[in-house]
Amino acid sequence: MKKIVVISGKGGTGKTIFTASLTDLIPGPIGIADCDVEAANLALLLEHVDLRSRPFSGLEKAGITQDLCVGCGLCKINCRFDAIECQDGEYTVDPVHCEGCGVCVDICPEKAIVMGPMRDGTIYLSRTSKGLMSHAELCAGSGTSGLLVDQVKKEITGEMGDEKALIADGPPGIGCPTISAVSGMDAAVIVTEPSVSGLHDLERLVRMARGFDIRLFLVINKYDLEPGMSKKVEDYASKEKIPVIGCIPFDQAVVDAVRKGIPPTRQDSPASQAIRSAYDKLAEMMELV
Ligand code: SF4
Ligand code: SF4
Question: Class of the 2-57+124-285 domain?
Answer without folding.
Answer: alpha beta
